[in-house]
Amino acid sequence: MIDSEVFDFVERCRKHTATAPLLDDLLETVRNLGFEHLILSGVPLSGQKLAPMVELNGWPRGWFERYVEAEHAAVDGVCIYSAKTLKPFFWADVPAKWSDTDDSRRVAGEATEFGICSGFAVPMLSVHHWQSVLSFASSQKRCSLSPRQQVQLVTMAVYAGMSIQALSNEDDGDEGPLTEREREVLLWAAAGKTSSETSQILGLTERTVKWHSTRAREAFGVATTTQAVVEAVRRRLIHP
Amino acid sequence: MITAHVVNAQNKHLYENEFDEFLRRRHDFFVHQKHWRPPSPDGRELDQFDTDAATYLLGIEDGRVVTSARLIPTSEPHMVSEVFPHMCERSGVPRRPDWAEWTRTFVVPDKRSAGLRGTLTQLCCAVMEYALDEGLSAVGGVQETYFMPHHGALKWRAEPMGMAREENGEWYIVAYIDVNEAALASVRRILRIDHSLLVRRGTQMPFTLPASSLVA
C-alpha cells in the first residue's frame, strides 16, 4: 500500500456523513494490508455490556452475535488488554496474564471458525466510554505488518476514530449518564448508607431511593449498586 | 468553567505567580507523569521554545492554573520545525505566521473528567477563540494519536502533515486544525456557552508580530 492511498482515505473519511459508508470504506482500504474484518467499540469494563458500545461493526456474520451472547468480552484477552493500554498492539503481543487463560484461548479458538486468526488493535480516547478500540482482524495465522504498514494502519485508525466521534450525536451523553438524584443516591451508598437511611436523609420514600439506584445500575449496565458506585467514581461523576 | 488569560512578553509581569504555578504544573505533568523531559532541580519545566515569541493561555479556575496552552507562530523556530520535521513527509513543515503551533497543554488530575464538557474542551474553546481573534488560519503541531478523537468530537477538522509514528514508545502525528467560525461555534455549542472565555490584561500585542521587532 502506498502512502497516498492512506491520505486519500483520510480525505474521504471526513466526507462520510454516516457510519455505514465509513465502515465499508475502511474495510475496503485495510484489505490491502491483509485485514478482512474490524470492529470499533467502546471498551467494556467488568460488568458492562459490549453491544451498546459498538460504533463500527465489521465482524463476520454470526461471530458478533456469539461473542455478545456468550459474554466473551469478559474473558477475551484482546478485549481485556484493550482497556489497559493506550498503545496500538498486535493481538499476539497481549501479555500471557490475559491471553493465556483457558477462557481466552477458547474465545480465540472459536474466532478461527469465523476466519479471525490474528489482528492488530488501536486504543483511542472516547468521550463516552473508558476508552475505545479499533481492532483489525486477519484470517492469516500470524499477522505481519512492515513498520511502514503499521504506521499506515494507525493513521487510518485514528482518522476513522475521529470521524466516528464527529458523527455521533452531540447531545449524546452531554448531560452525563446520571441525573442529580441518582448521583446523590450513589453518594450516600458510597458513604455506607442503606436505602432506608438514604430515604430519611433525602426525604424520599425508600421505594424512590431504590428506583434511583436501579436507574443508576442500568445507566452503567451493571448488576449491583456497589458496581454502580465504583463506575461513577471511575468516571469522576461523584467524588465521595 | 475556566477563564483563559492571554499571557505574552508584554504582560507577563502581571502574572508572576500564575506563570510560576504553570511551570510547576508543567513539571508535574511532562516530567513526572509523561517522562518526556528530565527533572529540573527547581521543579519548573521550561524548554528552548519558551521565548518572547510564545503566547500562553493559562486556564484559571477557583484561583488555580488548571490547564494551559502555548502558541508559537510556525514562522518562528518551533517544536515541529526543530524536533519533528521528519513527521511532515506529506506536506513539509509549515512555516506561516498565521499557523500557530500549539504545545504544552496539560489538565490537572482532578479536572480530567470523562465526557465532553470538561476542562480540556474549555481550553480548546479558548484556543479557538484566541486564534480567530488573532486572524490565524490553523493551530496544531505534534499530538498524541490517542487524543485525536477529541478533535472529532468537537467537529474540528485536523489536516495531517504526515503519518502517525511511534517515537520513544508513544504514537504521535503532526496535524493542524482549521480555525474558523464554525469550529468555534461547535465547541461553544457543546459547552453551552455563548460568551468569551478569554481575559486580556495589560499591554496586548498581536500574535503574529515577529519577536525581533520587540527590541525596538
Give structural notes.
The complex is a heterodimer of chains A (240) and B (216). Chain A is an alpha+beta fold. Chain A has two domains: 3-167, Transcription factor LuxR-like, autoinducer-binding domain (Beta-Lactamase, 2-Layer Sandwich); 180-234, Winged helix-like DNA-binding domain superfamily/Winged helix DNA-binding domain (Arc Repressor Mutant, subunit A), CATH 1.10.10.10. Chain A is 48% helix and 11% strand. Chain A contains eleven helices and five strands; from the N terminus they run ααββααβααββααααα. A five-stranded antiparallel β-sheet of chain A has the order 2-1-5-4-3, with helices on one face. In chain A, strand 4 and strand 5 form a beta hairpin. Chain A is elongated. In chain B, strands 1, 2, 3, 4, 5, 6, 7, 8 and 9 form a nine-stranded mixed β-sheet that branches. Chain B has one domain: 3-Layer(aba) Sandwich (Aminopeptidase). With 216 residues, chain B is of the alpha+beta class. The mean pLDDT of chain B is 93. Chain B has five helices and nine strands; from the N terminus they run E-H-E-E-H-E-H-E-H-E-E-E-H-E. In chain B, helix 3 (119-133) links the parallel strand 4 and strand 5 (138-144). The interface between A and B is medium-sized, with 37 and 32 residues.
Quick summary:
The complex is a heterodimer of chains A (240) and B (216). Chain A is of the alpha+beta class and 240 residues long. Chain A has eleven helices and five strands; from the N terminus they run ααββααβααββααααα.
| Assembly state of the chains shown | heterodimer
Q: Strand fraction band of chain B?
A: 15-25%
Apparent shape of chain B: globular
SSE-based structural type of chain B = alpha+beta
- CATH homologous superfamily title of chain B: Gcn5-related N-acetyltransferase (GNAT)
Largest interface (C-beta under 8 Å): A-B, 37 and 32 residues
